[in-house]
Design goal:
Cytochrome p450; 5-stranded mixed sheet; 14 helices; about 425 residues; alpha+beta; binds protoporphyrin IX containing FE; about 45% helix
Length: about 425
């Protein structure tokens, strides 16, 4: 079935709800999604009958309103809740199966507050400044491994390992194991459930989880200055610590957030710049543009394209009546291309200002890694633009994510460039 094969042509359904009708899991969704969401924005809150039914939220103001009101639109995930309806969580309609729950993004109340308080010292600008020399060393070293050859895979050799190594260091896992984790998270985001690649990644998952729990046990006995040591000691709900399953959920959210998103942002931005040599030239000639360009690429790529919520009480939004227990899918992508807020949204304007994009979300669950993501992106872009500014992408061989409709990214992107000298940087780990 294709994305737009209609279940109905009526713009309102039999209970008077505005409707929109497309299948975000159909094979042709990816190619059409910008047009589909632009069409959906004409009615920014509309009911989609697919997959048991959910509200598609596509307008900037409406997406912001939903994500700011965490009490009415909850992120929590509970199967068989006593209220008589499911709490869907954030991972799509239908919910992505076969992966641990996102225990930070799906945490609410005091546990969520405690987690954010624990993570802040590792994520706020002061912490990012501490990691800056390490990030730069990683960027130089990973590029050194290929710069003299004049070719590499921009994703697997560069944009993937750098955020991965940093995440390992921050969380407290051995940096050398980055490729093991990156492989699993990359495959889960890049391939659809049921494909051999996804299944292989899932096969590695139980081993990975066992390894995480083993390291957690070591940190209980010998704490260090890392997130894992603090997580195993954290007291929640009046004094208990996390169960193993909860701990895995927290780590899954943290490692997944740290690993794949910044990789995708950087890969897609490099791809776009190569397609638009004028923009690339400007960024090389005017490096001070990198700061506004970071925000613009965050908006334009919106790598975390959409997330879900559950309605906890009847509420009116944009003239529509949402009922307790309804599911809601908000599209950051659609909000970030809303022409009511962004002039010429389909164009990358390096110095766009203002640029109030929602790529990191907004409200109580706003991305806690956003400062880190911006810094990592800038470090990787500076390295490429300074050392291999004439890189050329092999478009035929480039493959984009076609897994979960929630995540955009690049699986592989071979590039060639004029070879340059190694910087002689020492191995960072
Ligand atoms: C381009 C990079 C990134 C993008 C586009 C992005 C996007 C987002 C978005 C949209 C949310 C909101 C979730 C919601 O409202 O339910 C979020 C939350 C989160 N992100 Fe990021 N993220 C990025 C990088 C990172 C990094 C580098 C980390 C970790 C080091 C991270 C960790 C998290 C965590 C833990 C949450 C949950 C926060 C909470 O619920 O309080 N993210 N991210």
């Amino acid at each position: 079935m294709s994305t737009t094969d209609k279940a109905t042509d009526d713009p309102t359904d039999d209970v008077g709800r505005a409707t929109v009708d497309f299948d975000h899991h159909a094979g042709d969704y990816w190619e059409q999604r910008h047009e589909l969401w632009a069409e959906a924005r004409r009615c920014p809150v509309a009911h989609n009958p697919r997959y048991g039914g959910f509200w598609a939220i596509s307008g900037y103001d409406e997406v912001a309103a939903v994500s700011r009101d965490g009490a009415t639109f909850t992120s929590k995930y509970v199967e068989g809740a006593p209220e008589g309806y499911e709490y869907l969580g954030i991972m799509g309609v239908p919910r992505l199966q076969g992966v641990p729950s996102a225990m930070i993004a799906e945490a609410e109340g005091s546990t969520h507050v405690a987690l954010r308080r624990l993570l802040n010292p590792f994520m706020l600008p002061a912490a990012v400044a501490r990691y800056q020399p390490f990030m730069e060393q990683c960027a130089r070293w990973f590029l050194d491994q290929h710069v003299t050859e004049g070719r590499m895979d921009a994703v697997t050799d560069f944009t993937n390992p750098i955020p991965a190594v940093l995440t390992m260091k921050m969380v407290g896992l051995p940096c050398e194991t980055w490729s093991y984790y990156a492989q699993v998270f990359h495959a889960v985001a890049a391939y659809e459930a049921g494909t051999p690649e996804f299944d292989r990644a899932q096969g590695l998952m139980s081993e990975m989880i066992a390894g995480l729990l083993e390291t957690a046990e070591r940190r209980r006995r010998e704490p260090r200055d890392d997130i894992l040591s603090e997580l195993v000691a954290l007291e929640i709900e009046g004094g208990r610590t996390f169960t193993d399953a909860e701990l895995v959920g927290v780590l899954w959210n943290l490692i997944g957030g740290g690993l794949d998103t910044t990789t995708s942002l950087t890969s897609l931005s490099l791809y776009h710049l190569e397609e638009h040599p004028d923009l690339r030239r400007r960024l090389v000639d005017e490096p001070e543009l990198l700061a506004p360009a970071t925000e613009e690429f965050l908006r334009f790529t919106s790598v975390n394209e959409m997330l879900t919520r559950t309605v906890t009480q009847d509420v009116e939004l944009a003239g529509q009546h949402l009922r307790r227990g309804d599911f809601v899918m908000m599209s950051w992508l659609a909000a970030n291309f809303d022409e009511k807020v962004f002039e010429s949204p389909d164009e990358v304007i390096l110095d766009r200002s203002p640029n109030p994009h929602l790529a990191f979300g907004v409200g109580p669950h706003r991305c806690i890694g956003m400062h880190l993501a911006r810094a990592l992106f800038a470090v990787m872009m500076r390295e490429v633009l300074a050392r291999i500014p004439d890189y050329s992408v092999d478009r035929e061989a480039t493959r984009f994510y076609r897994g979960s409709p929630q995540m955009a990214g690049v699986v592989t992107m071979p590039v060639t460039f004029t070879p340059g000298p190694s910087s002689g940087t020492e191995r960072p780990f």
